[in-house]
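Quick one, tokens below. Sequence please?
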């Protein structure tokens, strides 16, 4: 059985620098019966936070000469901090999937991450008219 989700992002792209910010994000999920709402909400929001990091910060840089990663630690591989994350809200459909087992619950795993980067990339396209097909969405990709 599969769980499903839809995510929506509001973005701000600075006209001079091209810096992208995500002040608000919403995820709506269909995951069968949610047994523990508090931990499920945290799981969804944590996944969306990871998706914001994927969209805006995380990038592996390879040294072509030696074939090793040059940003193999947190000093060079950037992840979002508390200041990078705006209002993130997660909600779900109140449902029970009787095909998913006796409890009617389906897995949520990292479903919050799956659509987050795409939602942010699409929102930046709507804001700027520039379609970027590579992550992360760094300022140099939004030259006006």
């Amino acid at each position: 059985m599969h769980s499903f989700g839809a995510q929506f992002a509001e973005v701000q792209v600075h006209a001079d620098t091209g810096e992208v910010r995500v002040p608000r994000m919403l995820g709506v999920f269909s995951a069968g019966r949610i047994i523990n709402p508090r931990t499920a909400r945290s799981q969804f929001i944590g996944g969306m936070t990871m998706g914001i990091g994927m969209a805006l910060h995380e990038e592996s840089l390879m040294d072509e000469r030696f074939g090793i990663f040059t940003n193999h630690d947190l000093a060079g591989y950037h992840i979002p901090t508390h200041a990078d994350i705006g209002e993130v809200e997660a909600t779900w459909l109140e449902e029970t999937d009787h095909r998913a087992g006796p409890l009617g619950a389906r897995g949520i795993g990292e479903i919050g991450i799956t659509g987050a980067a795409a939602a942010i990339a699409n929102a930046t396209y709507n804001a700027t008219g520039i379609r970027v097909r590579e992550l992360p969405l760094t300022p140099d990709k939004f030259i006006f």
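The longest strand covers residues 20-30. The chain has a mean pLDDT of 94.
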